[in-house]
Design goal:
Rossmann fold; EC 1.1.1.18; nucleotide binding; six-stranded parallel β-sheet; binds 1,2,3,4,5,6-hexahydroxy-cyclohexane; alpha/beta; about 20% strand; NAD(P)-bd_dom_sf; about 325 residues; oxidoreductase; seven-stranded mixed β-sheet; binds nicotinamide-adenine-dinucleotide; Dihydrodipicolinate Reductase, domain 2
Length: about 325
């Protein structure tokens, strides 16, 4: 029997994941969708023969086996809590919650339920290049790590994007990734503001985050959200005896009239296409088999949100901010 999935939020990534579940992956079908934009939800549902239900009804509907949350970040926690209360597996796009307190409520609810039901959409952990980089690090190829340099560049962002979004919506990916890469928590954060780009409007763009990890490694993260030229994700680790970096990912290189050119992805859909496929395939297969999901869990979601809240404070105050993390509940040890 294929897994019956209800999708909440039929915007950009909601439709991407519905396309993936409907036409790329096997073993699942999207049987219900929900969006505060009724007209949009209706159109998406009609195209795949699904029902439209209000979000909380979708979660408790007996025909829905598992839930995929793709609505705006501020709405995630409420839906995740409803899915835990209904005892249903739930894949929540990042961020898990927009406040540390809401993340903590999810940890408490899932701990009380006694089994992990939540996975968070930090897809970089499924990306071939990030996985290869982690393999080199774990093998000790470059010796003990000292620093990591990261850049996260969006060509453009919508006009409603705020300075806080540059951290909570964009840098949160690197926050999760470095925790996973080095297997340790982030203890303190600073955010520096260089001269703003003339393309940035009112945004303090770019930003430079300095993340202090518990193992002594420092990670610097450039966030640019009006880079113009394309979607560009970089990462390089400096070790005691070498360096390892994400490779160039283009499938083609053109040599012509004295120049070598390779295409640059337009946005996250193109750059992480394969990672999203692997991420959702593993989630569907595990849930169908009745297993416990192995991807980023509610603790990872809580930790990323808590660090991101500290970074927002660091941006606003210009100060170094220590991360105040709760003790890790037994369910996530
Ligand atoms: N993992 C990734 O790389 C990645 C990529 C893109 C987006 N995202 C995340 O996915 C989420 C959605 O992003 P998007 O780019 O698709 O945004 P979007 O604005 O295109 O779509 C969000 C949709 O959610 C709907 N919505 C808002 N509140 C709702 C509610 N309470 N109930 C039901 N629907 C509601 C909106 O009407 C909209 O259609 C965000 O949290 C974002 O950070 C993750
Ligand atoms: O929601 C998107 C998504 O998470 C992308 O992966 C990230 O690069 C963007 O900055 C963000 O706006």
């Amino acid at each position: 029997m294929s897994l019956s999935i209800g999708v909440i939020g039929t915007g950009m990534i909601g439709r991407e994941h519905i396309r993936r579940l409907t036409t790329v992956l096997s073993g699942a079908r999207v049987t219900a969708v929900s969006d505060v934009d009724d007209e949009l939800a209706g159109r998406v549902a009609a195209a795949i023969g699904a029902r439209v239900l209000p979000g909380t009804k979708l979660i408790t509907d007996p025909s829905v086996d598992a839930v995929l949350i793709c609505s705006w970040g501020g709405t995630h926690a409420e839906y995740v809590l409803a899915a835990i209360a209904a005892g249903k597996p739930v894949f929540c796009e990042k961020p898990l919650a927009t406040t540390s307190a809401a993340g903590l409520r999810i940890l408490e609810a899932e701990s009380a339920y006694g089994r992990r039901l939540v996975q968070v959409g930090y897809m970089r952990r499924y990306d071939v290049a990030y996985r290869a980089l982690k393999r080199e690090l774990d093998r000790g190829t470059i010796g003990a790590p000292l620093m990591m340099h990261c850049a996260h560049r969006n060509a453009h962002v919508p006009s409603f994007y705020t300075p806080d979004d540059m951290i909570a919506d964009t840098a949160v990916h690197e926050i999760d990734m470095v925790r996973w890469m080095f297997g340790t928590e982030i203890e303190a954060v600073r955010v520096l503001r260089p001269r703003p780009s003339s393309h940035a409007g009112e945004l303090p763009d770019p930003l430079l985050l300095i993340l202090e990890l518990a193992n002594g490694v420092l990670a610097d993260v450039e966030i640019s959200v009006n880079a113009q030229y394309g979607y560009d994700i970089r990462g390089e680790i400096l070790g005691e005896s070498g360096t390892a970096a994400l490779g160039e990912l283009s499938p083609v290189a053109v040599r012509r009239t004295g120049r070598l050119t390779t295409p640059i992805p337009a946005d996250w859909r193109e750059r992480f296409l394969a990672a999203y496929d692997v991420e959702l395939r593993e989630w569907v297969d595990t849930v169908r088999a009745g297993g416990v999901v192995t991807g980023p869990d509610a603790w990872d979601g809580y930790a990323a949100t808590t660090v991101s809240a500290a970074a927002v404070l660091a941006l606003r105050t210009g100060k170094r901010v220590e991360v105040a993390m709760a003790d890790r509940p037994r369910l996530y040890r």
